[in-house]
Amino acid sequence: MAPGPSRGRELALAASLFVLALALRFVGLGHLTPHSPEPDAVYALQPGFLAAPTTNPEYASYPYLVGWLAASWPAGDDGVRAADDESTLVERLDRAAAPLVRVRWIVASFAALLAPATYWIARSFFGVGWSFVAGLFAASSLMHLNLSQQGRPHAALAATLALAVAFAIRARRSGAFRDWCFASAAAALALAILQSGIFAYAGLAAAFVLRERATRRDWAFWLATAALLGATLWTAYPFLRPDELAHWSRASSDKLQFGGHNLVFAKFDGLGLVVMLEGLWRHDPALLVAAAFGVFAAWRSLRRTRDDDARRAGRRDAAVLASATVAYALVFGLYHGTLDRFALPLVAGLAVLAAAGVRAVAGLVSARVAVQAALATCVLGLPCFAAAKLAWLRSRPDTLELAAEWIERELPADARLVLQPWFELPVATAHSALARDTDRRRAELRYFWARYERAFPARDGRELAVLPDGRASFWSDLASTLEPELESLGATHVVCFRAHEDPYKARTDALRGLVSASGSSLLVVRALPPGAEGFGSLQYESPTFLADVLRATRVGPEVEVFARARSTDTSGPDSSASSGAGSSASSGAGSSASSGAGSSAADRGR
What we know:
Layout: H1 7-26, H2 42-51, H3 65-72, H4 89-111, H5 114-122, H6 128-139, H7 142-148, H8 154-174, H9 177-193, H10 199-209, H11 218-236, H12 242-248, E1 249-251, E2 255-258, E3 261-264, H13 272-283, H14 285-303, H15 309-333, H16 347-365, H17 369-395, H18 399-410, E4 416-419, H19 431-436, H20 448-455, E5 463-466, H21 472-476, H22 478-488, E6 493-498, H23 505-518, E7 520-525, H24 545-551, E8 558-563
Parallel strand pairs: 4-5, 4-6
Antiparallel strand pairs: 1-2, 2-3, 6-8, 7-8
Helix pairs in contact: 1-4, 1-5, 1-6, 2-3, 3-4, 4-8, 5-6, 5-8, 5-16, 6-16, 6-17, 7-8, 8-9, 8-10, 8-15, 9-10, 9-11, 10-15, 13-14, 13-15, 14-16, 16-17
């Protein structure tokens, strides 16, 4: 490890990186809940799976460490006051969001460990300053921050995998039994968060093979590791127990099904690495470019003929890091079904390479420390600004909340609203409407607010209905079925949404076209400026995510409210009056609805 300041100062630097990463991830943590959470919020369902038997295939999707922690989280008065007729809409929304937000707190807390773990990995190769730069690259990774604020496991896995590598490198050098135990515990932690945490054990094995010296207690370490691994599998993977395994797994000649996941054998064509690199590029281009320079710098370093103990130790530490991360990249890079978020466990290694790249370029520019620090600051400027901007955006009322506030304030209480499927509005639904709407939002992973309303119907609510999602005949001939459906629902207004994440984009566009042709647009709330190129939303995923973050003033899908008949003038800060059929008015990207009477969804604290 490169020489540096005292251990106390090093711990202070690592702690400062953790606090910075934690602050970025905690701000805006409750965004888009409970009305439009991430599509696969399995962790929020796990406490329920633990409490009662289930046949839901998502039961066997993820290991159960986060589920156990969420189940142990103090629930407060969620269950006691949930059906209180005097509860405000804000209180009801907060209670419906509680299972999601608890999980997000847990995931974000684990995920923030990525920054200090990256710092300690980098200390094997650099001095304190450049190691701190590596930690900043990790803390400000937009892809990692984006996933850290969701109830998904991938950002937490990236952090715990990096932590296991950092401890493994330390144990390889020191040989201390305590460090080996820490490394084993970190590997078990990564495995308890997600199945791909198994790659932490590749790094652990490499560290053991490349250790500086053997000791008489090596057997005790592997015995402890085996015991901890067995305990992890038994507690975090209940679906792998012999009496349950056959129920959750199905194998055929073309694919393997396990819980909610499908592994299609034909997709092992090597294109997964392209998917991961594309995902990194649209989130963290500065990190990727700097890491490319770092690869060149590392190659030049390896070509040097001079060899000493420090250089040999550095190569061995690099082998430990590569054993975990490169092996992971090769396995997932072969699979075409890989998603871009699977690239997150590579962020720590890329951050170390990025620091090496900036260091190499800075060394060519000037030997002065101040000039090198200025260059590093410039390179980090874009990712740090984008990360802070995303956290700020998610701390503000989203487009769905602004639309709900406008509806509560401007539309009469007897207005009957029909919503396009796949999104929810944070407004209370009348009990009678819930009872009639048998097709309403069936997917457990997506519609937490609708399920809460069914369990605890409001005393007062609006007449809301949802167009049928699963009725194929309705969507196959929408031009002839839409108007009769709206008539049968007694619709006075139609609410349409537009977002890149919508898997039914063609349906959405067709629906908006028909509704706009027969009604007047009263309100448009956008995340991006009018006319901006892109997908018109800023939620959880986007092919232009970094660009969207830099341009947006809100998060959420584009929302448009139509009146089915000629309406009287209706105005608000996010809309302009519309009295002719087919006319429309758009809110600016930065416009917002004013606060309602103390119970609007937009008043909710973040």
